[in-house]
Amino acid sequence: MLDKRSVITVGNFDGVHRGHRALLDYAAAIAKGATGGAQVVVASFTRHPLSELRPEQSPTTLMDITQRQAALIDAGADQIDWLEPDPREVLSLSPRDFVEMMVRRHQPVAWVEGPNFRFGRKRAGDIPLLEELGSEFGFEVAIVDPVSVTLRDKTIVPVSSSLIRWLIEQGRMTDAQLALSHPYTLRGRVIQGEQRGRTIGFPTANLDLGDRQLPADGVYGGIAHINAKPYAAAISVGDKPTFRGSVRTFEVYILDFEGDLYHQTIDVDILRWIRDQAAFTGVDALVQQMDRDVQRIRTLYNAQQLSAADLAHASG
């Protein structure tokens, strides 16, 4: 239990996107104005609830647990209550029992959610019920409207984790970053690959990414972060059609890097689609295209670094 009362919000928070940050901003404003002070508490699961209830319907994820925790704290959470160790037990609670549990754990002065929030067994609880229980247990219920963004095609859409997964699946990384408010970053452990890239002058790091959402097959420009240092990165997603591959992989050629990355965990920001995957007539044609890809990605990286430096200078 906390030393002082709390403002709580409950959800999956996958991606910690603009909509999530709006919830946390509102919660922080309420906490700041609370008599005696209050802490912002996020209650969530380490895995999507569907992974326990209906695994075949569980979505891919936008962040691993370490990324999500760091992003939530960066967005304003003072504490994260991971609803473990038995998520099935929590998911089986009636709406009232779930609220009673949260009241015992966090003594909320307020509960902040979006208008479509559902809770309790079979998602039976809704906002009117939460407001009714808030009156009984002494906490305010605050509703934050969805955040909308204008995509590059001028479509105005409400931000959601489902939308972002779809954008990434389509390879629309600029739009995904717009909805997230930060680059889409994959964190993975470097594993043994076929080492074919090494033989043609482009050694790649193959990443084990578990259930993370991959972008559409293609070549992308991005940034790899190794020991807190950024490097331009050429990213390939697909089954290597030139070599008649059959297994979908995520490989990263890290520009200007020399060293052994096996078994290390690295972060890769996927910034921009470069081209589709293609089956080339031979290795020479593939190498010529990769040379052009790397040149383009180096230009993209230099522009990205320049923009970041300008932003830091302007805010300093």
Strand and helix layout:
Layout: E1 6-10, H1 18-33, E2 39-44, H2 50-53, H3 65-74, E3 79-82, H4 87-91, H5 95-106, E4 108-113, H6 127-137, E5 140-143, E6 148-150, E7 156-158, H7 161-169, H8 173-180, E8 184-191, H9 196-199, E9 205-208, E10 218-226, E11 229-238, E12 249-254, E13 265-275, H10 283-315
Parallel strand pairs: 1-2, 1-4, 2-3, 4-5
Antiparallel strand pairs: 6-7, 8-9, 8-13, 9-12, 10-11, 10-13, 11-12
Helix pairs in contact: 5-6, 7-8
* Element-by-element helix/strand order: EHEHHEHHEHEEEHHEHEEEEEH
Tell me the count of domains.
2
The poorly predicted ranges are 310-316
β-strand number? 13
**Biggest β-sheet: count, sense, barrel?**
6 strands, antiparallel, barrel
* CATH topology call of the largest domain: Rossmann fold
* N- and C-termini, Cα separation: 39 Å
Estimated structural class: alpha/beta
What do these coordinates show?
- The structure is a single chain.
- By secondary structure, the protein is an alpha/beta fold.
- The protein folds into two domains: 6-147, 3-Layer(aba) Sandwich (Rossmann fold), CATH 3.40.50.620; 184-315, Elongation Factor Tu (Ef-tu), domain 3, CATH 2.40.30.
- It is 35% helix and 25% strand.
- It has ten helices and 13 strands.
- The protein has helices at 18-33, 50-53, 65-74, 87-91, 95-106, 127-137, 161-169, 173-180, 196-199, 283-315; strands at residues 6-10, 39-44, 79-82, 108-113, 140-143, 148-150, 156-158, 184-191, 205-208, 218-226, 229-238, 249-254, 265-275.
- Helix 6 links the parallel strand 4 and strand 5 (140-143).
- Helix 7 (161-169) packs antiparallel against helix 8 (173-180).
